Amino acid sequence: MIHLENLCRHFEVGNQIVRALDEVDLEINKKEYVSIMGVSGSGKSTLLNILGLLDTPTSGSYVLSGVSTSTMNDDEMAHIRSTKIGFIFQSFHL
After folding, report:
1. Is the pTM of this model over 0.85?
2. Could you tell me the residue ranges of all domains in the chain?
3. Which InterPro entries is this protein grouped with (predicted)?
């Protein structure tokens, strides 16, 4: 259902590159429950934003239900977000 291979997400901050995600491999099968855990700044939110199609990776592949997300346009991603993906947003101060 979810397959990540060599997934990277890098950000430019000034003249530095921040590697929020670097060569992440992950497979989550249908009906499987997972927990994403890590210390502050480890890339959890970045990973969830990519999994939820709110952000795109710098490189690597993300296949969702057998379809590469790199081939999806904005309308296709919006449709998947509205029909197949749920989010609960929590602010750090709550």
Report:
1. yes
2. 2-83
3. ABC_transporter-like_ATP-bd, P-loop_NTPase
What tokens were used for 27?
A: 């497979």
pLDDT at 93: 61
φ and ψ at 54, to 5 degrees?
-90, -20
31-43 residues labelled b (16+ CB within 10 A) or e (exposed): eeeeeeeeeeeeb
Among 58, 53, 47, 39, which residue's Cα sits nearest to residue 86? Answer: 53
Was domain 2-83 assigned CATH 3.90.79.10? no
* Residue 43, amino acid: G
> CA–CA separation, 64 vs 20, rounded Å?
21
